[in-house]
Automatic annotation (TrEMBL):
One of its GO terms (molecular function) is electron transfer activity. Keywords: 2Fe-2S, Iron, Iron-sulfur, Metal-binding. Coiled coil: none annotated. This is Ferredoxin, 2Fe-2S. It comes from Rhodococcus koreensis. Signal peptide: none annotated. Residues 2-105 form the 2Fe-2S ferredoxin-type domain. Belongs to the adrenodoxin/putidaredoxin family. Its cofactor is [2Fe-2S] cluster. GO terms for biological process: P450-containing electron transport chain. Pfam families: Fer2. It comes from the Bacteria.
Length: 105
């Protein structure tokens, strides 16, 4: 099981065990974490699940699709670490991953 640390917009930190095949968005919703709205339910259509994934953790996930890249391009708070958590599917590993949930305010 992968251990994910979510750095939340209010400055708090939450640690969540994420099952293989689950997205970081679903794990956040399952644990009622603030900051990930997920208006489209994970269909890569709204960008309300924006997170910042530091480069050292990108190897655990697939490259962003063109749709994800296009949505991120329209976000004011986007940077080189921006990803949509609905597209970050956890693999079967014992990894520890850190993400920062974007402040959507």
């Amino acid at each position: 099981m992968t251990k994910v640390t979510y750095d939340l917009p209010d400055g708090s930190t939450e640690h969540v065990d994420v099952e293989p095949g689950e997205t970081l968005m679903n794990a956040a919703l399952r644990n009622n974490l603030p900051g990930i709205v997920a208006e489209c339910g994970g269909s890569c259509a709204c960008a309300t699940c924006h997170v910042h994934l530091p480069k050292q953790y990108t190897r655990f996930f697939a490259e962003p699709t063109d749709e994800e890249t296009d949505l991120i391009a329209y976000l004011d708070a986007a940077d080189d670490d921006s990803r949509l958590s609905c597209q970050l599917v956890v693999a079967d590993s014992e990894a520890e991953i850190h993400v920062r949930v974007a402040d959507s305010r």
